Amino acid sequence: MNKRQTRLFAIASTAIASLIFLVLTLDSHRQFPTLTNADTITEEVVRGQHVWHAYNCINCHTIFGEGAYYAPDLTKITQLRGTPYLTAFMKDPSQFYDEERHRRLMPNLGMSDQEIADVIAFMDWVSRVDNQGWPPRPILVTGSAIPGADLTIAQQAAEGQGIPTGLPPGARPVTADNDPIALGEALFRTAVPTCQACHSIAPGVNLAGPSLAGLEAYYEQIVASGEYKGKATTAEEFIRESIVEPSAYLHPGPMYSAEGTSFMPTNYGEDLTEEQIDHLVAYLMSFK
User: Fold this and answer.
1) DSSP 210-271
2) Pick from 146, 129, 123: which is nearest to 205 by CA?
3) What pLDDT score does 35 carry?
């Protein structure tokens, strides 16, 4: 190829690449209204965006892969933490985390109730944007996963395949596709919001929600103490009640409820079938 041919090839390649880039850019802009749910951008969402910028939240947090990564990614935070929890957290973060134990502590920004409501509306809009799986790194909560395990364990168990040793009963190998404990574990990790985002299955490890280890013994304890005023008469019924009516019994501590309302999402009773709830109960009952 001589110099003239090389020059023409370079010009043609640049022109073709530029045309492709232009077409892709125009196509992206065409899809933005649908991908971002532009029709749901309310005045509250816009105000919330201004609050997000005014308090420089991105200096610590990340959305859509952009930010400091010093504090948790918040792209899907409203799908993992409900409005009551987020409201109480932003009013007084010190009730939820201790700087000596957790090393990092969100400062009390002194937001007004309106600012808090607006920024939650903004984050809820962000969580519903079709970001096509980006960022790939989800919110990770220390202690929420079984050491040595990953999200494929439940799938492996449900298929009767081998899984790592040293796992609790709920993650043991099974021989049938319809084992309720294995299916319950899979649901524990995949329900929306995911149970493992707030709860640990390790004894004494309390996260955004209390540990779910030993629920049978815990139920007997609160019944004996007279603290329980719900309708359950067995540990299984107590777990089911906690899933579908989380405010029926409020676990002590400001991290878990406020003004008589649990921070746990209330959608599970509507979004999950009776059979799925049975699977969750079977899984949680396996942790003695």
Assistant:
1) ---TTHHHHHHHHHHHT---SS-SSHHHHHHHHHH-TTSS--SSTTTEETTEESS-S-HHHH
2) 146
3) 82
pLDDT digits (tens, 9 = 90+) for 118-150: 999 999 999 989 887 776 654 444 433 333 333
* Cα–Cα distance measured from residue 183 to residue 158, given in angstroms and rounded to the nearest whole number: 6
* Strand partners of residue 73: 62
Q: 176: which 2 tokens?
A: 């049938």
Name the pLDDT band for 193 (thresholds 50, 70, 90): confident
Question: Is 248:201 a contact under the CB 8 Å cutoff?
Answer: no
> 257 pairs with which residues across the strands?
262
Q: Please, what is the angle between helix 215-225 and helix 235-244, to 10°?
A: 90
* Neighbouring C-alpha atoms within 13 Å toward the C-beta of 115: 13
CB within 8 Å of 261: residues ≥ 6 apart:
84, 247
Sequence-distant (≥ 6) Cβ neighbours of residue 154 within 8 angstroms: 171, 182, 185, 186, 188, 189, 190
Model pLDDT, residue 83: 87
CA distances from 204 to 29, 128, 226 (A): 49, 34, 22
| 235-249 confidence digits (pLDDT tens) | 999 999 999 999 999
Closest CA to 143 of 200, 214, 209: 200
Q: What's the one-letter identity of residue 229?
A: K
